[in-house]
Amino acid sequence: MLRDVILIGMTGACGQIFIFLTISLHDCYMLSIITTSRKCFSVVASAFIFNHAFTNMQWVGASMVLASTCLEVYLGNKKKRAEAEARKQKELNKSE
Question: CA end-to-end span of the chain, whole Å?
Answer without folding.
Answer: 69
